[in-house]
Design a protein that fits this description.
Layout: H1 3-20, H2 26-35, E1 42-49, E2 52-60, H3 64-76, E3 92-93, H4 97-111, H5 126-130, H6 138-142, H7 153-160, H8 166-174, E4 185-187, H9 191-204, H10 208-217, E5 240-241, H11 243-254, E6 258-259, E7 262-263, H12 267-273, E8 283-286, E9 295-296, E10 301-302, E11 307-309, E12 317-321, E13 326-331, H13 340-355
Parallel strand pairs: 4-8
Antiparallel strand pairs: 1-2, 1-13, 3-5, 6-7, 9-10, 10-11, 11-12, 12-13
Helix pairs in contact: 2-13, 4-9, 4-10, 8-9
């Protein structure tokens, strides 16, 4: 090897070691060891701060029951079961973590002036107007304030398996009942982002998957993240990603829209996404139990004035702390959500204390 390259490598290693010397991660590792069994038996946590990954640790303690469940899911998907530990490049469905990605994609069109958050959906999708839903706005689609009474999330996922086109998906949404005035009822579901995704396809002439690849995945070097190869993209929950990819997205959010010196979203869009839209005059028709009393912006939960997140049905938990300037992603795969909110908050505080040097 070139002597100069050797010196450079050594210097980089020393700088990395020195940068991480301030972090005591033993309690974080203990937490993962204690909680991973309740999170499907496997997990990985990555934390980014000060320009690099300061923590990456995985746990694999799958029991026989969890391995049997994993084997069953793999068989249904027509692929071999994987029992290996998660790594930064492990690729898994991330469910509602997708919402954050999709909302960001919509905001690229807002930044370019091709859409306004106040635009009504009827001007792009006339079928919604014919069913009394034309006055819903793009902003309301991104914040679950459409007023549409959507079926339960798992029921929606089952129904989407039979949908053959984006037009069919919108026809189904158009036929759903209303449960209140748009902007006045919060109902966490997939319908708003599905409408927004259909509008993006309509005004661009491109598929949602192509737009995501061009505008988000490509610029953020998310090489292993996509919305699948199905007939119809599911913007609210269809993404597959890896910890190292999703961290890049979170870094962009943390850096107010920039990544590696390149602007992906305007700072104004980042700010708009993080404004809590669940105001006192909004009725909550449905919110996941694990959401607690969190607020909601565009595609993301507002945990506090400084912390935003978009957890998924399968247990993955991404978040950004704007105050302490770090981003983190916990990947897991499990459906039992008992105690999930408490775990999220415990881990959030633990990492907060770690990056603040309180351990």
């Amino acid at each position: 090897m070139n002597p100069l390259k050797i010196v450079t490598t050594v210097l980089l290693f020393l700088c990395f070691t020195k940068a991480n010397a301030q972090y005591d991660l033993k309690k974080t590792e203990s937490w993962l060891a204690d909680n991973t069994n309740e999170m499907g038996g496997r997990s990985i946590l990555m934390v980014y701060q000060n320009g690099h990954i300061i923590y990456s640790h995985s746990v694999n303690q799958m029991n026989l029951k969890q391995k049997m469940a994993t084997r069953l899911v793999a068989r249904r998907q027509g692929k071999p079961a994987d029992f290996d530990a998660y790594t930064p490049s492990s690729r898994l469905p991330i469910a509602s973590c997708s919402k954050w990605l999709s909302a960001a994609l919509v905001m690229t069109f807002v930044d370019e002036g091709k859409l306004k958050l106040t635009d009504t959906v009827g001007q792009y999708l006339p079928v919604l107007s014919r069913h009394g839903k034309g006055k819903i706005t793009i902003g309301q689609c991104l914040s679950h304030l459409t007023g549409i009474k959507a079926p339960a999330i798992r029921e929606s996922l089952e129904e989407m398996k039979d949908v053959k086109s984006m037009d069919d998906a919108i026809e189904n949404i158009a036929a759903m009942p209303m449960e209140g005035e748009p902007g006045r009822v919060f109902h966490y579901s997939s319908v708003g982002l599905q409408i927004a995704g259909a509008i993006l396809e309509k005004i661009s002439g491109k598929s949602f998957e192509t737009l995501f690849a061009e505008r988000i995945a490509g610029p953020l070097n998310m090489k292993n993240t996509d919305f699948g190869k199905g007939k119809v993209a599911q913007p609210a929950g269809g993404a597959i990603s890896t910890p190292e990819d999703y961290i890049n997205f979170l870094v962009m959010i943390m850096n107010k829209g920039t990544f590696n010196g390149k602007r992906i979203l305007s700072e104004s869009s980042i700010t708009q996404m993080q404004v809590n839209r669940i105001t006192p005059d909004v009725k909550i028709a449905f919110s996941p139990a694990e959401a607690g009393n969190f607020g909601y912006g565009y595609g993301e939960w507002v945990l506090s004035k400084q912390v935003v997140s978009s957890p998924g049905l399968f247990g993955s938990f991404p978040w950004v702390n704007n105050d302490k300037k770090y981003a983190a992603f916990l990947m897991a795969f499990y459906l039992k959500n008992t105690g999930r909110n408490e775990r999220y908050l415990e881990l959030n505080k633990l990492v907060d204390d770690t990056v603040a040097g309180k351990h």
